[in-house]
Each structure stands twice: as C-alpha cells, then as structure tokens.
Amino acid sequence: MQNTSGNIQELAGIAGLLVAGDKGLLAMDESNPTCDKRFAALGIPQTVEARRSYRELIVATPGLGESISGAILCDETIRQEKKDGTPFVKALSGAGIVPGIKVDLGAKALAGRPGEKISEGLDGLRGRLREYFTMGARFAKWRAVLTIGDAIPSRGCIEANAQALARYAALCQEAGLVPVVEPEVLMDGGHTLERCRETTEEVLRTVFEQLYTQGVALEGMLLKPNMVVPGLTCPVQETVEETADATVKCLLRAVPAAVPGIAFLSGGQSGELASARLNAMNVGFGSRVPWALAFSFARAIQQPAMAIWKGEAANVPAAQQALYHRASCNRAARRGEYNASLEKTEHRTR
Questions:
Q1: I need a surface site. Which of 148, 274, 278, 329 has the fewest CB within 10 A?
Q2: Which residue is catalytic, options 30, 56, 182, 184?
Q3: 76 assigned to active site
C-alpha cells in the first residue's frame, strides 16, 4: 500500500465528512463549453464574467451548507472570486462546504472502439493535483463515460476506463485529496433496466478490481455511480421503488463495504425524479447497507436556479431560493423524508 496510515486516516476523515449526516455534494464543475451551451439555451451571454457571476450566485446562496457538504469546481471556477474579492474556495470553506475539483480533461473517442470513449487527463496530473491542494481543494473527481448499445460497452472500453480511474485515484491519495470515482453508465438509449443493471455491475466490479491493483485505500475514497434505470427511450419505465431496488441490489453485489459513501450522479434526470429515487433507496435500504447513500447532483440541483436567473442581477435572490430548495429536497431524500408535497412549498433561504 502506497499511502501512510496517517494519510489514510486523514483521507478517510474527509471522505466521511462529505457523506456525513443528511448532506451531499453539489457538482458545479461543468466545462466551459457545457456551461455556455446551457447559457445559450436561456439567452445568457457566454462570457467569463457571466460564468463567474452565476457561480457566485451558487457559492453565496444563504444556508447552502445546511444541505451541501462539498462543491466540485472546474479549473476556471477554483481560480475565481466573488465581486468583493473573496476567493470562491474561501467563501465555500466559510460556509462549511469542502471545496473539490474536477481533474479529468473530458471523454474522447477510444481508438479502435467506434461509439466508445476514454477520459483523458492523466498526463501531468500529479502536478495539477499538487497545485489544487495548495489552492484549498480537498477532494477531486474524475468521470468515465460508458454507453450501452449494440455490443457496447466492450471489455476493452470498460477496462481502459477502470484503469484510468484507478490511476487517478492513486495519484489523488498521494496528493492528500479524496478521489471521487465516477464511472457513469449513460441513460441515453432504449436499453432495459436489467441491461443497465448488468452493465453497471460489470463496470463497478472492474473498477474496484483496478482500484485494488493500484493500491487505493477504499476507506479514503467515494464512489459516484449512475442509478440503475432504464434508458430514456425504453418503452418500459419502472417505478421509483423498482429502480431503487435494482440500484441498491446491484451495488451490494459490486461495491466493497470499506467504501464510506456512494454519492449518486443525476445523469439527466429531473430534480424531482432524482430526489424521489434517492429517497426510495434510503427508505428501503438506508439502515441495511454498509455505505451512506448520498447525492452528487449537478443539473438536478442547478437547473431551476439557472432558468430563473437568466443572467439578471435582479433575479439572484429568487434563483438562490430555488437552489436552496432543490438542495433541501435532496437532504430530505437522504433522511427518507422526501415527498411530492415538498415541491409545492418552496424552502425559504435563510
């Protein structure tokens, strides 16, 4: 094992803090092109200042730390400041939110594997992690993307992405950062719930085999997987309870008990559906699984706020209230107390 026991203890403490109680992670690490695309759809200028203003709206939301334990930033955002000159990292820490950083450089076409992708960014990663640590980041995220289709994902794609995730995780722990390992089996397509379950289990088994091979301390990491759900265009869409049942049973077969927490990605689900599915998992299994069942949502928390904001300073308070509301709904889902009535009464910011 490459980590010292003291380092592992520190990493385990941070990992535990990120999934403690009823909180979860906020992913605000969209790449600039992705953020600009969402801005364009709402008529918001696609500029550095617009992105900075939007992220200040998030960071400065009153009471956000009640529901959010950590925030994942991108390279641009971790270097930015509020209008008053306060670095975002300092503002988050002051609100009791641990700053994190996305470090993969995006999914690119995998050579010789049509329709499949590999995430890049390992070259020079050791130096980047060292810099992010000095800037105040205490955890990092790397996303791998796997598509379900005819004869895919292939073993070659699964193994290549699992190895990259494991090498990234080992480098993170060496640098004193908790790795958030994100192997995302995409919702796109017409595959069934059962096909998603089989694929997700194979991917997770392979990822943990590689994490073990690379000497990653499981107690000092978090897993950020997809929920097991049918493809978006599948004619059969199972109930919230059925997807929750399939998801947790899949995880029980593939995720070691040493992992402190599972923080689900939303993957394009609506905010309400993501909350309802997380709630069903905690109601049905919360007290019977070895890891915390938490969240690490992006659009499922952010989208309503962005749509209200529209780039206008006058809309900031209403947008922040929407953000606070969605974060609070997911906090309730962690406790198994989320229901549709919460959507009818907006949580007020404090």
A1: 148
A2: 182
A3: no
